[in-house]
What does this fold into?
Amino acid sequence: MNLREKYHIRNDSVITIAGTVGVGKSTLTKALATSLNFKTSFEKVDTNPYLEKFYDDFERWSFHLQVYFLAERFKEQKRIFEYGGGFIQDRSIYEDTGIFAKMHYDKGTMSPTDYETYKNLFDAMVMTPYFPHPDLLIYLDGSFDEVVSRIQMRGRQMEKDTPVSYWEEMYKRYNNWIDNFNACPILRINISDYDLIKQENSIEQILEKVGHSLQHSSRYTRKQLTR
Ligand SMILES: Nc1ncnc2c1ncn2[C@@H]1O[C@H](COP(=O)(O)OP(=O)(O)O)[C@@H](O)[C@H]1O
Ligand SMILES: Nc1ncnc2c1ncn2[C@H]1C[C@H](O)[C@@H](COP(=O)(O)O)O1
It folds into this structure.
Protein backbone atom coordinates (compact mmCIF):
# COMPACT_ATOMS: atom_id res chain seq x y z
CA MET A 1 0.00 0.00 0.00
CA ASN A 2 1.40 3.41 -0.90
CA LEU A 3 1.34 6.44 1.42
CA ARG A 4 -1.58 8.05 -0.38
CA GLU A 5 -3.72 4.95 0.16
CA LYS A 6 -2.42 4.44 3.70
CA TYR A 7 -3.72 7.87 4.71
CA HIS A 8 -6.94 7.68 2.64
CA ILE A 9 -6.08 10.60 0.40
CA ARG A 10 -7.92 10.60 -2.94
CA ASN A 11 -5.73 10.75 -6.03
CA ASP A 12 -7.71 13.72 -7.40
CA SER A 13 -7.20 15.87 -4.28
CA VAL A 14 -6.02 19.45 -4.58
CA ILE A 15 -4.02 20.70 -1.59
CA THR A 16 -2.71 24.24 -1.41
CA ILE A 17 -0.03 25.46 0.99
CA ALA A 18 -0.31 28.95 2.44
CA GLY A 19 1.92 31.01 4.69
CA THR A 20 4.20 33.99 4.79
CA VAL A 21 7.31 34.40 2.65
CA GLY A 22 10.11 32.03 3.71
CA VAL A 23 8.04 29.89 6.08
CA GLY A 24 8.67 26.68 4.09
CA LYS A 25 5.84 26.30 1.54
CA SER A 26 7.98 25.22 -1.42
CA THR A 27 9.92 22.72 0.68
CA LEU A 28 6.72 21.13 1.99
CA THR A 29 5.14 21.21 -1.49
CA LYS A 30 8.00 19.12 -2.86
CA ALA A 31 7.97 16.68 0.07
CA LEU A 32 4.21 16.12 -0.04
CA ALA A 33 4.10 15.75 -3.81
CA THR A 34 6.91 13.20 -3.73
CA SER A 35 5.32 11.09 -1.02
CA LEU A 36 1.85 11.21 -2.58
CA ASN A 37 3.06 10.96 -6.16
CA PHE A 38 1.17 14.18 -6.94
CA LYS A 39 2.00 16.93 -9.39
CA THR A 40 3.22 20.32 -8.20
CA SER A 41 2.19 23.85 -8.98
CA PHE A 42 4.93 26.32 -8.05
CA GLU A 43 5.18 30.09 -8.03
CA LYS A 44 7.89 30.94 -10.52
CA VAL A 45 10.17 33.50 -8.93
CA ASP A 46 13.19 33.48 -11.25
CA THR A 47 11.18 34.14 -14.42
CA ASN A 48 8.84 36.74 -12.90
CA PRO A 49 9.50 39.91 -14.95
CA TYR A 50 8.19 42.30 -12.27
CA LEU A 51 9.34 40.92 -8.92
CA GLU A 52 12.76 42.58 -8.67
CA LYS A 53 11.43 45.85 -10.02
CA PHE A 54 8.60 45.65 -7.49
CA TYR A 55 10.96 45.24 -4.53
CA ASP A 56 12.86 48.23 -5.86
CA ASP A 57 9.82 50.48 -6.21
CA PHE A 58 6.54 49.20 -4.72
CA GLU A 59 4.48 52.15 -5.86
CA ARG A 60 5.49 51.92 -9.48
CA TRP A 61 5.08 48.14 -9.90
CA SER A 62 2.53 46.80 -7.42
CA PHE A 63 -0.41 46.80 -9.84
CA HIS A 64 1.61 45.17 -12.64
CA LEU A 65 2.88 42.49 -10.28
CA GLN A 66 -0.57 41.66 -8.90
CA VAL A 67 -2.06 41.32 -12.37
CA TYR A 68 0.88 39.14 -13.40
CA PHE A 69 0.49 36.84 -10.37
CA LEU A 70 -3.26 36.62 -10.89
CA ALA A 71 -2.82 35.57 -14.53
CA GLU A 72 -0.13 33.02 -13.61
CA ARG A 73 -2.16 31.47 -10.80
CA PHE A 74 -5.28 31.35 -12.94
CA LYS A 75 -3.37 29.48 -15.66
CA GLU A 76 -2.16 27.05 -13.03
CA GLN A 77 -5.70 26.62 -11.76
CA LYS A 78 -6.78 25.72 -15.29
CA ARG A 79 -3.95 23.18 -15.57
CA ILE A 80 -4.97 21.57 -12.27
CA PHE A 81 -8.57 21.40 -13.44
CA GLU A 82 -7.59 19.89 -16.79
CA TYR A 83 -5.54 17.16 -15.09
CA GLY A 84 -8.47 16.43 -12.78
CA GLY A 85 -6.55 17.16 -9.56
CA GLY A 86 -3.75 15.27 -7.83
CA PHE A 87 -1.82 18.47 -7.09
CA ILE A 88 0.09 20.21 -4.33
CA GLN A 89 0.07 23.94 -4.90
CA ASP A 90 2.72 26.30 -3.51
CA ARG A 91 0.74 29.32 -2.20
CA SER A 92 -2.97 29.92 -2.65
CA ILE A 93 -4.56 32.47 -4.93
CA TYR A 94 -6.40 33.89 -1.89
CA GLU A 95 -3.18 35.29 -0.43
CA ASP A 96 -2.62 37.55 -3.43
CA THR A 97 -5.63 39.65 -2.61
CA GLY A 98 -6.08 38.93 1.12
CA ILE A 99 -2.47 39.68 2.01
CA PHE A 100 -0.38 41.31 -0.70
CA ALA A 101 -2.71 43.58 -2.69
CA LYS A 102 -4.53 44.70 0.47
CA MET A 103 -1.32 45.42 2.33
CA HIS A 104 0.03 47.59 -0.49
CA TYR A 105 -3.27 49.41 -0.80
CA ASP A 106 -3.47 50.03 2.97
CA LYS A 107 0.13 51.25 3.02
CA GLY A 108 -0.41 53.60 0.08
CA THR A 109 1.86 51.73 -2.34
CA MET A 110 -1.09 50.70 -4.52
CA SER A 111 -3.49 53.44 -5.56
CA PRO A 112 -7.22 53.15 -4.67
CA THR A 113 -8.12 52.98 -8.38
CA ASP A 114 -5.58 50.24 -9.10
CA TYR A 115 -6.74 48.30 -6.05
CA GLU A 116 -10.39 48.60 -7.09
CA THR A 117 -9.58 47.43 -10.62
CA TYR A 118 -7.53 44.52 -9.31
CA LYS A 119 -10.20 43.50 -6.79
CA ASN A 120 -12.93 43.56 -9.44
CA LEU A 121 -10.83 41.36 -11.68
CA PHE A 122 -10.01 38.97 -8.83
CA ASP A 123 -13.62 38.68 -7.68
CA ALA A 124 -14.89 38.13 -11.22
CA MET A 125 -12.33 35.40 -11.83
CA VAL A 126 -12.06 33.67 -8.47
CA MET A 127 -14.94 34.34 -6.12
CA THR A 128 -17.54 32.64 -8.30
CA PRO A 129 -19.24 29.23 -8.04
CA TYR A 130 -17.35 28.24 -11.21
CA PHE A 131 -13.93 28.46 -9.57
CA PRO A 132 -12.89 25.13 -7.99
CA HIS A 133 -11.56 25.76 -4.48
CA PRO A 134 -8.91 23.40 -3.08
CA ASP A 135 -9.92 20.42 -0.95
CA LEU A 136 -7.58 21.60 1.79
CA LEU A 137 -5.42 24.60 2.60
CA ILE A 138 -2.41 23.77 4.77
CA TYR A 139 -1.46 26.89 6.71
CA LEU A 140 2.19 26.95 7.74
CA ASP A 141 2.85 28.91 10.88
CA GLY A 142 6.09 29.69 12.71
CA SER A 143 7.75 32.29 14.88
CA PHE A 144 8.61 35.60 13.28
CA ASP A 145 12.31 35.18 14.11
CA GLU A 146 12.45 31.78 12.42
CA VAL A 147 10.71 33.14 9.31
CA VAL A 148 13.12 36.07 9.03
CA SER A 149 16.12 33.82 9.52
CA ARG A 150 14.86 31.53 6.73
CA ILE A 151 14.46 34.49 4.37
CA GLN A 152 18.05 35.49 5.12
CA MET A 153 19.31 31.92 4.78
CA ARG A 154 17.57 31.37 1.43
CA GLY A 155 19.36 34.44 0.21
CA ARG A 156 17.20 36.07 -2.49
CA GLN A 157 18.90 39.46 -2.62
CA MET A 158 15.71 41.48 -3.23
CA GLU A 159 14.17 39.95 -0.08
CA LYS A 160 17.32 40.40 1.99
CA ASP A 161 17.40 44.08 1.04
CA THR A 162 13.78 44.61 2.12
CA PRO A 163 13.35 46.21 5.58
CA VAL A 164 12.39 43.75 8.29
CA SER A 165 9.33 45.94 9.05
CA TYR A 166 7.84 44.75 5.72
CA TRP A 167 8.03 41.10 6.84
CA GLU A 168 6.68 42.04 10.25
CA GLU A 169 3.65 43.76 8.76
CA MET A 170 3.05 40.75 6.51
CA TYR A 171 3.42 38.33 9.42
CA LYS A 172 0.76 40.17 11.46
CA ARG A 173 -1.58 40.26 8.50
CA TYR A 174 -1.21 36.54 7.91
CA ASN A 175 -2.26 35.79 11.51
CA ASN A 176 -5.36 37.88 11.09
CA TRP A 177 -6.13 36.61 7.60
CA ILE A 178 -6.07 32.92 8.50
CA ASP A 179 -8.35 33.47 11.50
CA ASN A 180 -11.01 34.81 9.13
CA PHE A 181 -10.42 32.51 6.16
CA ASN A 182 -13.34 30.29 5.13
CA ALA A 183 -13.11 29.59 1.38
CA CYS A 184 -12.08 25.94 2.00
CA PRO A 185 -11.08 23.63 4.91
CA ILE A 186 -7.83 24.50 6.74
CA LEU A 187 -5.12 22.44 8.43
CA ARG A 188 -2.70 24.48 10.56
CA ILE A 189 0.82 23.17 10.96
CA ASN A 190 3.58 24.79 12.98
CA ILE A 191 7.04 24.56 11.45
CA SER A 192 8.56 23.77 14.85
CA ASP A 193 6.53 20.54 14.94
CA TYR A 194 8.32 18.87 12.02
CA ASP A 195 11.73 18.72 10.44
CA LEU A 196 11.76 17.32 6.93
CA ILE A 197 15.54 17.29 6.90
CA LYS A 198 16.46 15.62 10.21
CA GLN A 199 13.39 13.52 11.03
CA GLU A 200 12.62 10.91 8.42
CA ASN A 201 9.08 10.18 9.59
CA SER A 202 8.05 13.88 9.68
CA ILE A 203 6.28 13.67 6.36
CA GLU A 204 4.16 10.75 7.57
CA GLN A 205 3.05 12.75 10.59
CA ILE A 206 1.90 15.49 8.23
CA LEU A 207 0.23 13.01 5.86
CA GLU A 208 -1.72 11.56 8.75
CA LYS A 209 -3.04 15.03 9.64
CA VAL A 210 -3.82 15.75 5.99
CA GLY A 211 -5.74 12.47 5.61
CA HIS A 212 -7.64 13.15 8.81
CA SER A 213 -8.56 16.72 7.80
CA LEU A 214 -9.72 15.62 4.36
CA GLN A 215 -11.82 12.78 5.75
CA HIS A 216 -13.52 15.20 8.12
CA SER A 217 -14.35 17.77 5.47
CA SER A 218 -17.95 17.41 4.32
CA ARG A 219 -17.07 18.78 0.89
CA TYR A 220 -14.47 16.02 0.41
CA THR A 221 -16.87 13.33 1.60
CA ARG A 222 -19.50 14.67 -0.83
CA LYS A 223 -16.98 14.54 -3.66
CA GLN A 224 -16.24 10.93 -2.70
CA LEU A 225 -19.91 9.97 -2.79
CA THR A 226 -20.55 11.51 -6.18
CA ARG A 227 -17.76 9.53 -7.82
N1 LIG B 1 11.47 22.10 7.66
C1 LIG B 1 12.52 22.91 7.41
N2 LIG B 1 13.59 22.90 8.20
C2 LIG B 1 14.64 23.70 7.97
N3 LIG B 1 14.70 24.59 6.98
C3 LIG B 1 13.65 24.67 6.15
C4 LIG B 1 12.49 23.85 6.32
N4 LIG B 1 11.59 24.17 5.35
C5 LIG B 1 12.16 25.15 4.62
N5 LIG B 1 13.40 25.44 5.08
C6 LIG B 1 14.33 26.42 4.53
O1 LIG B 1 13.74 27.72 4.68
C7 LIG B 1 13.93 28.51 3.51
C8 LIG B 1 12.60 28.95 2.95
O2 LIG B 1 11.87 27.80 2.55
P1 LIG B 1 10.89 27.82 1.29
O3 LIG B 1 10.31 26.44 1.21
O4 LIG B 1 11.61 28.34 0.08
O5 LIG B 1 9.81 28.86 1.80
P2 LIG B 1 8.58 29.55 1.05
O6 LIG B 1 8.28 28.73 -0.17
O7 LIG B 1 7.48 29.54 2.06
O8 LIG B 1 9.01 30.94 0.75
C9 LIG B 1 14.75 27.66 2.55
O9 LIG B 1 16.11 28.01 2.69
C10 LIG B 1 14.50 26.24 3.02
O10 LIG B 1 15.57 25.38 2.74
N1 LIG C 1 0.75 38.61 -4.78
C1 LIG C 1 2.00 38.96 -4.47
N2 LIG C 1 2.33 40.25 -4.35
C2 LIG C 1 3.60 40.62 -4.05
N3 LIG C 1 4.59 39.77 -3.86
C3 LIG C 1 4.29 38.47 -3.96
C4 LIG C 1 3.00 38.00 -4.25
N4 LIG C 1 3.04 36.64 -4.26
C5 LIG C 1 4.30 36.30 -3.99
N5 LIG C 1 5.04 37.38 -3.83
C6 LIG C 1 6.51 37.43 -3.62
C7 LIG C 1 6.97 37.19 -2.22
C8 LIG C 1 8.30 36.51 -2.42
O1 LIG C 1 9.31 37.49 -2.59
C9 LIG C 1 8.14 35.76 -3.75
C10 LIG C 1 7.86 34.29 -3.61
O2 LIG C 1 7.09 34.00 -2.46
P1 LIG C 1 7.42 32.75 -1.49
O3 LIG C 1 6.52 32.97 -0.30
O4 LIG C 1 8.85 32.76 -1.18
O5 LIG C 1 7.02 31.53 -2.29
O6 LIG C 1 7.08 36.39 -4.42
Q: What stands out?
A: The pocket of LDVFA3IR (ligand 2) is lined by residues 21-22, 25-26, 43, 45, 51, 65-66, 69, 91, 96, 100, 159 (CB under 6 Å).
